[in-house]
Design a protein that fits this description.
It is a single chain. With 378 residues, the protein is of the alpha+beta class. The chain has two domains: 249 residues, Naphthalene 1,2-dioxygenase Alpha Subunit, Chain A, domain 1 (Alpha-Beta Complex); 112 residues, Rieske [2Fe-2S] iron-sulphur domain (Rieske Iron-sulfur Protein, 3-layer Sandwich). 26% of the residues lie in helices and 25% in strands. The protein has ten helices and 16 strands. A seven-stranded antiparallel beta sheet has the order 1-10-9-4-3-2-5, with no helix packed on it. Strand 15 and strand 16 form a beta hairpin. The radius of gyration is 22 Å and the shape is globular. The structure holds FE2/S2 (inorganic) cluster (FES) and fe (ii) ion.
């Protein structure tokens, strides 16, 4: 259903806005957020081809741990097999196409809920009741197709695209930029998924700027957020980022005394990494949290939300207590972001005027608009 009547192609509108000089940049036009047709193109041009982050590897620690998702219309599962390898495979039975697993959890075998065909964790068909009389049935030919799945610095990425560029190659620049954080050794403490009533890019946009901190987050972190300390350097082809300096008294967000790899002001530095299309990481020397976004509809986003601590903080009971407090704070901050981003989506449905100019603190948003425009050309 088209939510807005528009005679101009949203991709054309975007192109005319996105490539203005940064000094006179405008926010993306309404239609790229509200049009079903534009979303369909984002799904086929971006989400069907790119990597999608499904969380941290230590969120699926044991053989049989799995999570299921719908990626660009395809039911898939990510599961740890008997050998401890994470793999992604098609979550559809080879018999008459029932979906196999639902949600997330742990299982010894993958049993089809329709007629009971049973698969091993590696996707090979283990058994199928009363199939002995059909001459064309060959159990060995009935494995679940395997999809791309990679681990990178503790993250788990999946893709439907067999020719997708390896994650580590695509993100070399991030790896070198934050090598002293040793992101691979951070431990996850929570993970959940939920949906909000906004466009996925509204939430991505929200993450990409710290301009909204003093006002949207006035009741929580607004007072301690100094936008003067925000740096928005030019980004790269695969991601944009900005940085903040954190105060010493916010224990978990500055480097632990045992941390010897972070030097000087980097011990107080927070990175906000926005990896295209929809993988958003806040990385501090002490903790991290992340969002991975999948569009369910123009005005509906599915959110994979998790976080945890760096290795120096994990073992101390004191830090666990601080982290519990942080978790409560993150939930409150999240609720504020929900309010702000759902209000923006409601506003984007207005027909009376268009989005306005960007602040210099919204450089990442400017770059994101150019990325979207390149991926969904007019
Ligand atoms: S559809 Fe799976 S066993 Fe029949
Ligand atoms: Fe926010």
């Amino acid at each position: 259903m088209e939510l807005m009547e528009t005679s101009v192609d949203p991709a054309e509108e975007l192109e005319s806005v996105a490539f203005q000089p940064f000094e006179s940049a405008y926010a993306m036009p309404k239609s790229v957020y509200t049009s079903q047709d534009f979303l369909d193109r984002e799904i086929s041009n971006i989400f069907a081809k790119e990597w999608f982050c499904v969380g941290r590897s230590d969120g699926l620690p044991n053989p049989g741990d799995y999570i299921t998702l719908n990626l660009a219309g395809q039911p898939i599962m990510v599961i740890r097999d008997q050998n401890g390898q994470l793999r992604s495979q098609v979550n559809v039975c080879r018999h008459r196409m029932s979906k196999l697993l639902e949600g997330s959890g742990n299982t010894k075998r993958i049993v089809c809920p329709y007629h009971g065909w049973t698969y091993n964790l590696d996707g090979s068909l283990r058994g199928a009741p009363t199939m002995t009389r059909n001459k064309s049935f060959d159990r060995k030919q009935m494995s679940l197709p395997r999809l791309k799945c990679e681990e990178w610095l503790g993250w788990v990425l999946v893709s439907l695209n067999p020719d997708v560029e390896p994650v580590s190659k695509k993100l070399t620049k991030i790896e070198s930029m934050i090598s002293d954080f040793d992101m691979g050794s951070y431990k996850q403490a929570f993970f959940e998924t939920f949906e909000w009533n906004t466009n996925w890019k509204v939430l991505a946009d929200n993450f990409m700027e710290s301009y909204h901190l003093p006002v949207c987050h006035a009741a929580t972190i607004g007072g301690v957020s100094r936008v003067d300390d925000v740096e928005c350097p030019e980004g790269f082809e695969a991601f944009n980022y900005h940085t903040l300096q954190k105060e010493e008294d916010f224990t978990l967000s500055v480097a632990h005394p045992d941390n010897t790899s972070l030097q000087g002001e980097r011990r107080y530095m927070t990175y906000l990494l926005a990896i295209y299309p929809s993988w958003l990481i806040t990385l501090t020397p002490g903790y991290f949290w992340y969002l991975s976004l999948y569009p369910e509809a123009p005005g509906r986003v599915r959110i994979y939300f998790g976080g945890g601590m760096s290795k120096e903080f994990v073992s101390s009971p004191e830090s666990q207590k601080h982290f519990e407090e942080l978790r409560v704070l993150l939930d409150e901050v999240n609720e504020e972001d929900r309010g702000c981003t759902e209000r923006v989506y409601a506003g984007l449905l207005s027909k009376f005027h268009d989005p306005g100019p960007l602040s210099h603190l919204e450089r990442p948003n400017y770059e994101f608009a150019q990325y979207i425009s390149k991926m969904v050309p007019a």
